[in-house]
Amino acid sequence: MEFKLINEQTIMIYFENQIDSKTFAKVQHVLQYIKEKQHRAITEIIPSYRAIMLHVDINISTLNEVLNDLCLEQLDLNSIDETQLKSKTIRLPVLYGGEYGQDIEEVAAYNNLTTEQVEKIHSSNKYLIYMLGFMPGFPFLGGLDTKIHTPRRKEPRTKIEAGSVGIANNQTGLYPKQSPGGWQIIGRTPINVFDINREPMCLYEAGDIIQFYSVDLETYRQIETEQTQSDFNIEKWVKFDYEH
For the residues 142-167, what does the mean pLDDT come to? Predict the structure, then answer.
């Protein structure tokens, strides 16, 4: 680990300069350690692929005092077993292609595949959520098969529909709300994955696993209809597998 004081109120904790599950496990371990400390001067903790940002109320403690209190240097990160991280797997339905995945043909052509092969490859993998960003509930997912790596669109769209599943280089992700964006859209889930009126608001968090499964148009519309009803049973369509 490396510590840097970014400004008068911010500490950055850096790990290895690489994006992989082993580095992520270290980030999660230190994140949980800091949370359990409940340091009263730390006002916000923001993890990412390979770093943790701490916002500090310097009216309570200085940055160096916070670092001394945390005693991070005592942690043994070499013994962390990434397979022991607590997580859950969330299986989400996706309608691939057509008007719901308008870039799947471009992804297929770029990789010399058929659209059916893209769909099969994408829905076969399990994806680790490294972080949530640029809007609430947007998961940056690792584990995309190299066979379907595809660059971002040269011209971003001004509007991408909520639920859209896309590819950008070596990552895949999911737009929880309507938004501009430059990812290659290959499908869409009818599930509202982020809802401020629901507890929890987001169906997943960093460290969880997402797996997509393919549905047809009839099923997609059925889910849409059921979701508008007050007695909607989300677990009929979204499968949660808790692992420890």
Answer: 95
Q: 167 with 143: CB under 8 angstroms?
A: no
Confidence of residue 244 (pLDDT cuts 50, 70, 90): very low
Instruction: State the average pLDDT over residues 44-64.
Output: 90
Which sign does the torsion angle of CA 88, 91, 92, 94 carry?
Answer: positive
Structural domain 2-75, CATH architecture: 2-Layer Sandwich (3.30)
Higher pLDDT, 210 or 241: 210
Give yes or no for a contact between 219 and 236, defined as CB atoms under 8 angstroms apart: no
Q: Hey, which CATH number is domain 87-243, 3.30.70.2860, 3.40.1570.10, 2.40.100.10, 1.10.12.10?
A: 2.40.100.10
186 phi/psi in degrees, rounded to 5: -115, -10
- Going by C-beta distance under 8 Å and a sequence separation of 6 or more, which residues neighbour residue 204? 88, 90, 129, 139, 193, 210
Domain boundaries, the chain: 2-75, 87-243
Phi, psi of 156, rounded to the nearest 5 degrees: -60, 150
- Arithmetic mean of pLDDT, 84-95: 84
Element at 191 (helix H, strand E): none
Dmax over CA atoms of the chain, in Å, equals: 59
